[in-house]
Every structure is written in C-alpha cells, then in structure tokens.
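USER:
I would value a second opinion on how I read folds in token form. Give me a protein, with the fold worked out from its sequence. Write it directly below this note and I will take it from there.

ASSISTANT:
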Amino acid sequence: MNAKLDSTATVRSVTRQTFDQVLVPTYAPAAMVPVRAQGLDLWDQQGKQYLDFTAGIAVTSLGHAHPVLVEALTRQINLLWHLGNGYTNEPVLRLALALTEATFAERAFFCNSGAEANEAAFKLARKYAHTKFGPAKSRIISCVNSFHGRTLFTVTVGGQPKYTEGFEPLPQQIDHIPFNDIAAARAAIKDDVCAVVVEPVQGEGGVVPASLEYLKELRALCDQTGALLIFDEVQCGMGRTGKLFAYMGYGVTPDILTSAKALGNGYPIGAMLTTDALAATLSVGTHGTTYGGNPLAATVALNVLEIINTPAFLERVQQASAQLTAMLQGLIADYPQMLSLVRGSGLLLGLVVAQPFLGRAKDIQKAAEAEGLMLLIAGADVVRFAPALIVSDAQIAAAGVMLRRALSGLSSAA
C-alpha cells in the first residue's frame, strides 16, 4: 500500500534540526520542540514541562486546548468547513453581530491575520479619502517602533526600518512620528493625511502604552483634517488590557479597529471593524480573501469572544495584572543591576533591563526557558510577558520563582 495513503504508516521523526533543513530560515526558533499543551502547561519532545507565559505572542489567551473551544471546533468540523465568498455562513454572521454589538463598530470584515486586517484598514482609508477628497489626500501617519504586519504595505507602515531593508521600492506617502509625542503629531497630521494608525499599547516596540492625552490629540487632529484614526489592537485587544479592547479603557474611539491574535485563540482569524459610512467604500469586488470568515475560524472566535467579554473575566485580568506587576517589581528591587522598570497594561507587560544589562533581554529569556519558563522579548532591552488571560496567582508565583533562579544564575555568571 502507498505509505501516503496508509493511515497506519509510521509518523516520520523530526527534530529542531529538521527546521534548518527544510524551512525557509525566516525564524530562529528555540532548541526545544513543543508537542503538547494544556492551559498554560506545555511539554516538549523530551517530556520536559514548561510554564508558558508567551501565549504564542498574546494569541492563546484562553490557554492551550481550551475545552469549550475544542468542543465548538469539533462540532463545526462535522458540519461545514469552507465556502467560497459567493456564499455566506451562519457562524460568521453570528460573530459579526456579536462584535458589532460589543464595540463602536457597525460593520466587520474578516480575514486570516493581523497583517491582513491592517492591510484592509489601510486600503479602506486610502479608498475612502480618494473617493471623498481626491487622490491628493493619501498620506498615512504611523509611529516609530510600531508594528503592523509583514506584507509590503503593512511592514512599510510599521516604523521599524530593519524589517523593510532590501525590499525597496516601498509603498509611498507613509511617514513616521515618535510615539506619544503630541508636538510631532500636530506637525505631521495635515490635510493631505488620509489615516493615522497607532497601537494603544506598542507591543513589538517595547510594550509601551500610549498616554491618554496622546490618543485624545490624535482623535482631535483626525477630526480636524478629515483623516481616519485606526487603532491596531491586534496584540493589545481581546481582553489583554483588562478591557475587551484597549480603546474602551481610554475612552477614545477610532474610526477603524483591527483585531487578530487572541480573537481565534490560535485558530487563524483577523477582523477589521468600522462604521457603516466607511464600510460603504469597499463595495463588491474592491477587496476580498478566500479563507476570511470561514465557518471554522468564526465558530472559534465567537466562543472566545463570549468567554472573554464578561465583567468577571475582565476584572480577573486586572487582578492578575496587579499580581504579575507586583511580582516583577519585587524582582526589580532584588536585581537592580539587571532590571529597571515594568511597564505595559493588563497582562501585556514589559520588564525593562537596567543600564549594565542593556542588550541582554534575550539572555534572560533563554535562562528562564532553561528553568522551565517560556517568555518573550520586545527588542534587545525588554522581556515581554503575555501569559494566557486565565493565568492563576499560583502560576504567577511559580513564574516568579523560575525567573528568580534564572536571574540569579545570570548574575553569578556575570
């Protein structure tokens, strides 16, 4: 029998070295290979257990293999997987209703990732301005150290040149201003600007929250110039800050909001949310996606939304944030030569290294992993914490113990 058709065929053995042999080298993954996970617990090929404080970069916010999501996805798998965009489906309609009822938005566009959600947002902003004001109103303003995706358009809007080098020529009429700098915003946002995009909490840029005054000024400037205000909540949305979306905590409403990552808890889905008036710009045939809004992704996302969007759940996120912050501040007090401050919002926090330890966030990450704690970094000087929103006080305490051992080991080796 053909081995490819034989369901009993032996599964081919693979290791971390297989990555180097067959995958395009766009990543440099850890030496260990995860094979199973439940909640915040994860096991690698050797059976070693880890405490996952990455949530797949703020994605698995309800933890791995959440039983409600497993059941919902399994049920939908046995009903309907995919339809071309000449048809609609019940799960996507229910998800769109739920998101519009829960937010400022009146319309939703579904795709497969944060980059695609931002691509749709930027295309909408350009087309709306072109239709209403003419082609001269095309400039997009973004922030230095922002991150909006890896398509050529979104990576150019992102304010990190290291990600665009070698891909020139880049899309034009895109400028970057310092984050949280009101004077720079006033100087840049003029009548030729069609959109201003900002992350309420910069994730990849170092886990830096926007100030309330800054977001209010961006809103006012957009209102004055006719530009659209876009909030990229791909990383900081879906309960991560203790509100369903971060804009709700600020009281500043965007014209367009993008979501992904935690929206599907690991099942690929992205969303662009906007108003009736703006959505009308994208008429039939102006934009699309093959897989966006498929029944499987929409089913998972609706269940994620229903679990997260309750007062008790969001209050617990804020409580857990206080616990995690206190734990990190204790480490700062005990290791002042290595750590300087903690910043962020909710359960998206950054631990900034001290001057003598600049550039060594990756060393802390690797030392923590050796102790059984999975962490992220946000640049060379920030260790990023984005655990599942269901993290317990006991798990926060356990993470503190492992991180303390990691720091002690690094301190002794210094």
Notes: The chain has a mean pLDDT of 96. The longest strand covers residues 339-345.
